[in-house]
Design goal:
By secondary structure, the chain is α+β, with helices and mostly antiparallel strands. About 35% of the residues lie in helices and about 25% in strands. Helix 7 crosses helix 8.
């Protein structure tokens, strides 16, 4: 039986979403195949082994107050090949065969934990160090995607020192690059779940959007507005990845905000997306092209816009550890194709092991 570590929580502003995703995985994983080793990371960065984890307590965050938690660290020493656990005043080694890092955002999706797992020699679900880092930073993603020929929104990168020196001048440069066409979208380069993202309908809105985005990052992306449908495609695999059916987001809010993603039940998800068969095929093709160009493995969700006239497919962003909650698009897209949640987990673990042993 494989010893499967499930890492959740973490330092990022997506901590709660990570806990919800992990709760779903712990609920749906086939425990006849895996010995579960749940490891929770607090918002402050403390690691704990949470044995016999209760998914509902993981979901709510109550796990942090459980009396049986043991402090633990993931050892980079390959002889350990797992955790060092502090129990009853003693340090013991706990072997791990494979890890599912259900960590969104900073410290979990940016190559940091992938680097630690790579040093430790532990197979893990999801893309490796470079792919994770390049996909997490939207400006670096843009540069890679430019080499693929896939259409993406026009953009300007704004750096915090330039903004602090002269906010108006920095905003005007972005406005000029985008030909003064509003609305524009302002995004922290390395933040997920739409945290810190703002729609700017005029120059004052652009200034305010930059101010908000710089609360979350030192580098900000100002992007062209694409008038179209938000569509998403799940990709699965290592050498020969496959693309799922395409789904569509229909938020009732101005755009797909953090609140719309996780709190607003009125946001609709359509599978298949309400676009033409030709557009669906183009999204699938481009999703694999972006995934491959970034060097991803295991899984990612690739997001696009389909213009309202259906003529253009425009790349938006890629998520290397997409949400795995009960309402998340990634598992739902493959479920539509006949791959159940628990079977999807099995497939992801097999891909992680294949990458190391194949």
């Amino acid at each position: 039986m494989l010893k499967l570590a499930v890492l959740f929580g973490g330092l990022s502003n997506e901590h709660k979403i990570s806990c919800i995703s992990a709760s779903s995985i712990l609920t749906n994983v086939d425990q006849s195949q895996y010995e579960l080793i749940p490891v929770g990371i607090t918002h402050e960065g403390r690691w704990f082994l949470y044995e016999n984890a209760e998914p509902e307590k993981v979901k709510s965050g109550a796990w942090e107050h459980e009396p049986g938690l043991c402090p633990a660290v993931l050892s980079p020493d390959r002889k350990t090949h797992g955790l060092l656990v502090q129990r009853d005043g003693k340090m013991e080694e706990l072997h791990i065969d494979v890890c599912f890092p259900v960590l969104h955002g900073f410290g979990g999706e940016d190559g940091a934990v992938q680097g630690l797992l790579t040093l430790a020699g532990i197979p893990f679900v999801g893309p490796g160090i470079a792919a994770s880092a390049n996909a997490m930073d939207k400006s670096l993603t843009k540069i890679v995607v430019e080499t693929t020929g896939v259409r993406q929104a026009a953009y300007e990168i704004v750096l915090r020192p330039d903004y602090q020196k002269d906010a108006v001048a920095a905003a005007k440069r972005a406005e000029t690059t985008l030909h003064g066409t509003y609305p524009m979208f302002v995004k922290p380069c390395s933040s997920g779940s739409s945290v810190g993202v703002a729609r700017a309908d005029d120059f004052d809105g652009l200034i305010k959007g930059l101010e908000e985005a710089f609360r979350w990052d030192t580098k900000v992306l100002v992007e062209e507005f694409i008038d179209g449908y938000e569509v998403e495609c799940a990709v699965l695999g290592n050498v020969d990845p496959i693309a799922s059916m395409v789904g569509q987001i229909a938020p009732t809010q101005t755009f797909y905000t953090f609140d719309a993603k996780y709190n607003d039940a009125s946001s609709a998800l359509y599978i298949p997306a309400h676009i033409s068969k030709q557009a669906i095929a183009k999204v699938q093709e481009n999703a694999i092209r972006v995934y491959t160009a970034l060097g991803c493995r295991g899984l990612s969700r690739v997001d696009f816009f389909c213009t309202c006239d259906g003529e253009e497919i425009v790349f938006n962003e890629i998520n290397t550890i997409p949400g795995f909650t009960s309402i998340s698009m990634y598992p739902k897209l493959f479920e539509y194709g006949g791959l159940s949640y628990s079977t999807l987990i099995d497939r992801l673990i097999a891909l992680a092991m294949e990458e190391v042993h194949g």
